[in-house]
Structure formats: structure tokens, C-alpha cells
Specification:
Strand content: 5-15%
Low-confidence stretches: none
Largest sheet: 7 strands, parallel
Distance between the termini: 49 Å
Helix content: 40-55%
Shape: globular
Strand order of the largest sheet: 3-2-1-4-5-7-11
Number of helices: 18
Structural class: alpha/beta
Number of strands: 13
Mean pLDDT: 93
Oligomer: single chain
Length: about 500
């Protein structure tokens, strides 16, 4: 093992990156971070789903550079920001679900193959209930397409692949930072084979086409197939199943290409850089916070012993960068790094309930009639049987009564519709979050902790702060109430 990491900022100088999924949340933070801390990076090629170079440039501008995330860079460069971006960043029109990343410009492909040092795969469909054909195309085969392209690059040093800690399925206990075994299902009774999964999708699509199924019918059938296949092999949803398959095959087929897999847990807003509380859309637990803030969620089912593993997005990005440097400098030969907080700085649903109540009670949102929403702590129910009884008494009986009343008088229609919406939302949330509200696992992060120690002990003093990804430095109360929920209200609840 090498003696030290040295300066990470110096390491990034004159390096060339290819970043996929460049309009995604994490990728944007990664790109902004490197441009901000190391303006002498050589080039960042950003792969964006677009039909041609012009539309790729437009997407780069609208979906990346113009975001408030880049305000610190804007303050630094002022009117020169666009010239700096055009010098350092190039939008690449493509699609990872296609061979050679769907890049149609052959001269650009040649340029990438000659210039790229590091390939960073952030592209993913994070929809838990994604169409199976889409999830396979992006999350599984897309990742393999990225690896195959990386292998062709003359100077490539490494592939950094962003996965998810929840490839563990519903495992309990200490979940280790170990690669998944090729073909091994979570239930042990089936074998996972991606070519079999691909063939099943093709056959189902052909059947639906022969039946003249509508787009909506096809989408429903594809979502159903994904969930069936995930559960057959022991994973709770299509997203984590498709990500697990990609991990298995990346490790099995990497050959001599150095590979780093980052497994974040529930990613939330930025903790420190470029400023606290930046988020885009509602992530994981944020859907619960948003529904509560809008007055649509009054109860939740959970196991009191379950730990919610939250990690700020900028810490995930810092973990990615430090892991990349450690691998390149042969400080570490580990492949998997879990980026989370459950083993060192735990949060429970009771904590989150308290944070939500305190923030929204002091900063209420408003009803349609302009009145402030009245907030109460969530009713936390610790078993599914108790939940079903609660649902029947508190929601279904009043719903039936309002349904009958609204058939006689329009006065009750709004109340009937509102309660119906609450029931649908609650039912969806309970089903959606059940694998996580009952997950009895703690994510080991020994590999990541070893990097944190190296960062503190062998890098310049200021870089330990610049690239901080230590979850023990987060005061959850202060951060969630003071920055994360305000950021969610500002950026993610439109």
C-alpha cells in the first residue's frame, strides 16, 4: 500500500473525464465540484441524451450550467463563465443504452478514445417502478456499454460506476462492501442471467405488439414484468434488481480495467459544497417530507428499530473522487465503497418525524383557500396488521360515508376527493417504502472509512475539509431542519 494520497486537487489537474448521465443530480454535483476546485482540469466530456450536437449543447446549458448549483462558479467567473465552460466542457450527444454510447459523430468518438483518462458512469433510471425494458436498457446493459467503451479508450485509467447500497435487497445485519456474485439471486433458489431477462423482455414486447396493445398497456405490462422478475430473484423492486445485475457483470467482465463501484444510500441535499441544501426534485425520503409538508400524509408504517441511512450528495461525490485517486495511486485495490451513515451516525423515522414537524410548524405551507396547513406529528404504526386496522377506521369508513354523501350533495365532493387522494398516496407510500422502513441492515463502510483516514493523514490539511465525506460531521437536527427541508421546499417541491 502506498504511503500517501497526496494532493487530490493537484491530481485532478490536466485530467480528462467522460461523465455519463450528465444531467442527473449526482453527475451535476460531480462536474461542478471538479470545475470549481481544479479549473486546470483538461476536459470534461458530458454524455447527454440528445438527438444532435446542437440539442446536446442546449441541454448542457439549460439542465446543467444554468442551475443554481453553479452560482459559486458564476460569482467566481462572472461574464467569463461561458467561455470557461466552453473551454473545459463539451456536450456529447448519445445514449448509453446503445452500442458505443450512441455517439453518431465518428470524429468525436475518435477524440474520446484518444483523450479520456477516467470514465464516470452516473447514468441511471432511479424510478423504483420503471418499465423493465427501460431499466434493463439503462441500468444493466447501459452500464456494460459504458464499460465496453471505456475499454476501447487508449489512455483510460479507470471506470467509476455509481450504484446503490440497496443492491443488498432486503438483507439484514451488517451489509458488507463486497462485490455481488455473478448470477447469485437473493433468495438462493434462482439464477440471475441477464440474457434470459433480455429475451423475456423482447418476447413480451413482441407479444404486446401482436396484440396491438396501446402505449399505456405496454408500459403497465413492462412495469409489472420488472416487478415480477425482481421479486422472483429476491429483490424488492425493478430499480435495485437492474442495478444489482449491472454490478455483477461489471465485476465479472472488467478484465484489466480498474473498476470502482460507489454505493450511496439515500442521497439527500448538499451538506457543504458548493452551498448547503441544494437539491433537485424529491429524492427517496423527500417524497415523505413533501407529502407531509403539503398536509397529505398523517401516518406511516415502520419498524422502530430500522435505521434510515441518509447521506448528503456532496459527500457521495467527494467519496467518488477520493476513491478514484486512491485506486489510481494504488493506495487501495478495493472495488466497492459504500457511502452512507447508518454505521456511524444513525437517523430513525422518529427523528425525521420530529424534524418535519418542527420545520413545517414554524414554516407552514398553505391550503388552496390560503389558510396555513395545521401540522401534527405523524401517527407511527409499527405493524402491517395495525396499519390495516387504522386505515379501515380512520380512512376507509369516512371515505365510504363521504362517497355516499357526495352522491346526494356537491357540498361533500371536495372532501371526498381529498380523502381519496390521501388514501391512494398513503397506500402507494406504504408499499413503496416497506422494503426500507423494515430494512434491518446496517451498511458497513470500512473501505470508505479507510479513505477518510488517508484523507486526514496524508493529504494537505485543507483538502480534508474540501473533500469531506465523514457522516459523523453531520448534525442531522441542524442540517435537516436548517438546510435540507428548506432546500427541498425551494428546489424540490414545485
Amino acid at each position: 500500500m502506498a504511503a500517501e494520497l497526496g494532493s487530490i486537487i493537484e491530481f485532478l489537474e490536466n485530467k480528462t473525464f467522460l461523465v455519463t448521465g450528465a444531467t442527473g443530480y449526482l453527475a451535476k454535483i460531480f462536474v461542478e465540484k471538479i470545475l470549481r476546485v481544479q479549473p486546470n482540469v483538461k476536459k470534461m466530456y458530458l454524455l447527454l441524451r440528445a438527438s444532435d450536437a446542437k440539442s446536446a449543447m442546449q441541454r448542457l446549458q439549460q439542465d446543467v450550467v444554468e442551475k443554481e448549483l453553479f452560482k459559486v462558479l458564476k460569482e467566481k467567473y462572472g461574464e467569463n463563465l461561458n467561455s470557461f465552460i466552453s473551454e473545459k466542457v463539451r456536450a456529447v450527444a448519445g445514449d448509453i443504452s446503445c452500442e458505443d454510447l450512441g455517439i453518431k459523430d465518428s470524429s468525436l468518438t475518435d477524440e474520446l478514445l484518444k483523450e479520456v483518462d477516467y470514465v464516470v458512469n452516473c447514468a441511471a433510471s432511479t424510478n423504483f417502478n420503471e418499465r423493465y425494458d427501460v431499466a434493463l436498457g439503462i441500468n444493466t446493459f447501459g452500464a456494460l456499454n459504458v464499460m465496453n467503451f471505456a475499454k476501447k479508450c487508449d489512455k483510460v485509467k479507470m471506470l467509476v460506476h455509481v450504484s446503490t447500497a440497496y443492491v443488498c435487497g432486503e438483507d439484514g445485519g451488517l451489509i458488507l462492501e463486497k462485490p455481488l456474485s455473478l448470477g447469485k439471486s437473493k433468495n438462493g433458489s434462482t439464477k440471475v442471467e441477464i440474457e434470459v431477462e433480455k429475451k423475456l423482455v423482447q418476447e413480451k414486447l413482441a407479444q404486446l405488439l401482436s396484440e396491438n396493445a396501446s402505449q399505456k398497456e405496454t408500459a403497465i405490462a413492462m412495469k409489472k414484468l420488472g416487478l415480477e422478475r425482481a421479486k422472483l430473484h429476491g429483490w424488492p423492486n425493478t430499480y435495485v434488481f437492474s442495478k444489482a445485475m449491472s454490478e455483477m457483470h461489471l465485476v465479472a467482465s472488467k478484465d484489466n480495467l480498474p473498476l470502482v463501484i460507489i454505493r450511496p444510500s439515500m442521497i439527500i441535499s448538499t451538506y457543504q459544497e458548493p452551498f448547503p441544501g441544494w437539491i433537485e426534485g424529491a429524492k427517496t425520503i423527500d417524497s415523505v417530507i413533501a407529502a407531509y409538508g403539503k398536509g397529505r400524509l398523517e401516518c406511516f408504517v415502520y419498524n422502530p428499530e430500522t435505521v434510515y441511512d441518509l447521506i448528503p450528495a456532496d459527500m457521495v461525490v467527494n467519496n467518488m473522487i477520493v476513491a478514484m485517486v486512491a485506486r489510481e495511486k494504488k493506495y487501495s485495490t478495493e472495488i466497492v465503497y459504500q457511502s452512507g451513515s447508518s454505521s456511524r451516525n444513525q437517523v430513525t423515522l422518529s427523528n425525521i418525524d420530529d424534524f418535519m414537524y418542527r420545520y413545517f410548524a414554524a414554516n407552514p405551507l398553505f391550503e388552496k383557500d390560503g389558510k396555513p396547513i395545521q401540522y401534527h406529528n405523524l401517527t407511527l404504526i409499527n405493524s402491517m396488521s395495525a396499519y390495516r386496522l387504522y386505515l379501515a377506521i380512520q380512512y376507509l369508513l369516512p371515505f365510504k360515508a363521504l362517497q355516499l354523501a357526495s352522491s346526494f350533495s356537491k357540498r361533500y365532493e371536495d372532501m371526498y376527493m381529498t380523502l381519496g387522494l390521501k388514501i391512494r398516496l398513503l397506500t402507494r407510500f406504504v408499499e413503496f417504502y416497506k422494503p426500507y422502513t423494515y430494512l434491518m441492515g446496517i451498511f458497513d463502510d470500512t473501505n470508505s472509512e479507510n479513505l477518510r483516514k488517508a484523507l486526514k493523514e496524508t493529504c494537505p490539511t485543507n483538502e480534508a475539509e474540501i473533500f469531506n465525506f465523514d457522516p459523523t460531521t453531520v448534525d442531522w437536527d441542524d442540517f435537516v431542519v436548517g438546510h435540507h427541508i428548506p432546500g427541498l421546499v425551494k428546489y424540490g417541491m414545485n
